[in-house]
Task: structure prediction
Amino acid sequence: MEKETGRIEAFSDGVFAIAVTLLVLELHIPELKDGDTPVHLLNALKIQWPGYIAFVISFFSIFIIWVNHHKIFKQIYKRNTGLMFANGFILFLVSLVSYPSALLAKFFLSDSKQLSVTIYTGLFVLINLAFNLLWQQATLDKKLLRPGISDTAIRRLRNNYLYGFPTYLAAFIVSFFYPDLALAVCVLLWVFWAASSKKINFTETPVL
Amino acid sequence: MEKETGRIEAFSDGVFAIAVTLLVLELHIPELKDGDTPVHLLNALKIQWPGYIAFVISFFSIFIIWVNHHKIFKQIYKRNTGLMFANGFILFLVSLVSYPSALLAKFFLSDSKQLSVTIYTGLFVLINLAFNLLWQQATLDKKLLRPGISDTAIRRLRNNYLYGFPTYLAAFIVSFFYPDLALAVCVLLWVFWAASSKKINFTETPVL
Amino acid sequence: MEKETGRIEAFSDGVFAIAVTLLVLELHIPELKDGDTPVHLLNALKIQWPGYIAFVISFFSIFIIWVNHHKIFKQIYKRNTGLMFANGFILFLVSLVSYPSALLAKFFLSDSKQLSVTIYTGLFVLINLAFNLLWQQATLDKKLLRPGISDTAIRRLRNNYLYGFPTYLAAFIVSFFYPDLALAVCVLLWVFWAASSKKINFTETPVL
Amino acid sequence: MEKETGRIEAFSDGVFAIAVTLLVLELHIPELKDGDTPVHLLNALKIQWPGYIAFVISFFSIFIIWVNHHKIFKQIYKRNTGLMFANGFILFLVSLVSYPSALLAKFFLSDSKQLSVTIYTGLFVLINLAFNLLWQQATLDKKLLRPGISDTAIRRLRNNYLYGFPTYLAAFIVSFFYPDLALAVCVLLWVFWAASSKKINFTETPVL
Result:
């Protein structure tokens, strides 16, 4: 049976690739004054460190979201309207990432640090919700899925995102009190997702 | 018979994906003054609400335009110069969306609200015209279409866009007097298009 | 024989799609002062008309360059280093278009109109040269071409770009004295290319 | 055996295409004062020459990185987590290029010339490291590679990047003392990579 999701994946890949590459536009070239030396430039670059951190975290979070999107769509062969719009919701949120990322970069060293981390982690709660919605839409009608997919594989994929939801929600709540810890939880979740992305593909469900 | 529209679809997908992802660049990071507190940041973010509305409406309108583009090109197998340029006209208008969207975001709370909504709805009248033109070009020479496509399917697709035209035109005219209503009509049309996108694909014309 | 130029075409399509979509970033949202009315906004939008002209000309020129690129690569089945770099040179020039386009938009109503039109037409002379180079690289080794391509088709494609070169060069020279005429020649050349794109594909060389 | 790296290549092509096309945003349109003549505009454009140099070097460096990425992935048929993340690291660095490129453009004529060249060459040391990492991940498990690839071809590809590393490192160290020489070494390395890209593909390993 032929996959009919090729153009959805191509469009989604485009959005992921652009969202991830636009992040660099949030890194600003320092303005120097006449007479400023390389030491001033170096200091101006150093003081932007929250921008670099935000860039790294946002880049790899979108990258891992893409890896997971890839993994899910390997199991989806047909599409319906529900699936199209669950996917559209994911793309909407992913295209947004650079905005809270820029907020984080700009306000991490200010009094508004907590607020910017809360907005940032809140977006990832929503992205996790959207992935749950996508997988729920895909499994509502088993005709959409790869022929021969096992129930174990379906359950594992769902659990992967279900477990993510309370953790992201916890990070979101924690961000009100300990923003650094909340960011750390987000980074750890990406490491977990990166590691777990292997197991399902290669152990549970044979790749065509 | 092989499709020869693959590269047109790939190029179009690229333009749609970029147009939709560039929208985020119109969301601005607030400037705070020394001594400003998180409350100031929160207020500065809240006051930008027309920008968020414009972002949401523009994102999903481009997304639904892409869904419809996808649906039409599933029925087109060959291309000619007329088709290429009707498609180019759609891409031209889609690449423009972020500009009236930014006008809307900036002037929605000002005296120029009506003008910005009129420009915005006017663009969608043109996009609807371009879709009618594309489908007319595709059906002028039935050799361009998917072999075995039924006349009912052709008529349904045409009607889908024909009915859209007077509605968008109405929204455009209404925008001079009741801009909020005009925007609401646009949103409702997308809901209609989203819902109607299902019927033709799965009921009328069997998907290869 | 399988085409091995798929990823070159995909990468090129990406660059064309982005170059064409980034043009909108050169359209600026007017700044109004407190107390400004919709009439001020309308006037501020009207005074930007060279920007709209530059946007339209640049959009459709890149679009037609893409159509021609598409047409050439339908005849190319294998690649070598010379072809890769001739293509890279085209992409380099295409990614540049938005810069002279922005110069044109900004200085068309100033004393620097002639200079900005000269730079703009100069870029298209170079793009034409790059296309000649690409086709020359492709035909140097006939093993790169589509099996069964006729000598007439090869000659026609070459002539298409050869004839373009003196015309663009003429536009470039004319731009020093009559910038409006030079722009008009460029637009007319695109119309010619658009029209001629049909003949070769459908009359001379049967499409696989 | 079917390749299963199609979507990785498509996503990577997207990032490469966007990274290369965004570079033009770092070229700035000069601001003129009332009464300024075309001579002022010409001078303002001329004084930006380091920006043009940075644009050319960065464009072709990303282009050659893409050519090499293409070459490596022609030999890779399966993927695992290590490969995904080595590739992600390359894309991360490539998406960054426009930032040190903009630093170079802005500070090349200032006291901070050496610092900006050092940062710029340092990024290419990292990109070279990432390519070594990718090829090492791909060859750790020979099941990932194209069936029938010869050991000579594997060794040649590895050597290609291994030889690059000490040269880039040398350019990086030299940049502290002779920034112009360091930039020249980078350009020469791209010429070498461009030339060497031919040999392995067409002599050593038959292309499917």
Observations:
- Helices of chain D lie at 6-22, 38-46, 49-73, 81-96, 98-107, 113-140, 151-174, 179-204.
- Residues 199-208 of chain D have pLDDT under 50 and may be disordered.
